[in-house]
Structure prediction request, 297 residues.
Amino acid sequence: MEQASDAVVATRAALAQLMALAVQYSFSIVGALVLLTVGWIASRMLSRWAFKGLSRIHGIDVTLAHFFAQVVRYGVLVLVVVMVLGQFGVQTASILAALGAIGLAIGLALQGTLQNIAAGIMLLVLRPFRVGEAIETNDINGTIMDIGLFATELRTYDGLYRLAPNSTLWNVPVTNYSRLPTRMHDFKVGIAYEDDIDKALHIMLDLVNSDSRVLKDPAPTAYVDSLGDSSVNLTLRYWARSDVWWNTTRDVTKGVKVAFDAQGITIPYPQVTYRVPSDEQEPPLLHLSEPAPQTRN
Prediction:
């Protein structure tokens, strides 16, 4: 009987402690649920506000605005979780220290990835190229399809898909063929020394001046560039819009050849002329004498 009464007393004491703990932590639980709900709603609202505000800023890319909006959202959620843990008596200072250590470890492990993210942010902020523009570096060339935080998607000139890490595009010089509205072209061609230089220059100028794609300002120019070993080298310089530059240069190249053929202007092959003085005697031929046969004793 005494053992049974002791068990009943212990059970009642345990239930009393549980009730006390429930009453003690009920307010903490309710407060934690309220903090989580308010924090979740606030994170989404602040994320939308950040995205809309950044989108209104001139020069901020949509991808970059979305990235910073997500940073704001998850930053608010982390603060909410730390506050919830503080409601239950957890030391938040140790949690923040642990989060800092974890962040440092992740940063060291993902150093290359973070480098690409940093390069992607700089590319989206400074915009050395945009979607649809044609670029070229020492190792990469093509038309930009998409600029992400980690990598950039391109379509090469021969129709291939290429994914380039952002760090490879940020740390090297980039040539953008589409950014400026006009481009210059230097067309070089050689004519024979016997041909009329002025006539050839006028033919080239008349050809580009009659082409509506060639800009009149600055005006096209043609001049003698150099005197080569087998030709007089001429240069035709003109400007065209960037969107029609390629087709214009190909048509001008073909047009110059056709016009030269029609007007009797020769584009010579490389050649070398050797002259031998007539009074120079031919060098004597060297004859190798055969060794005398040996006699046998």
Notes: The domain at 10-109 is CATH 1.10.287.1260 (Helix Hairpins). The chain has a mean pLDDT of 80. Helices lie at 2-55, 62-87, 92-109, 111-126, 166-170, 197-209, 245-263. Strands lie at 134-136, 141-147, 151-155, 161-165, 175-176, 182-191, 221-227, 232-241.
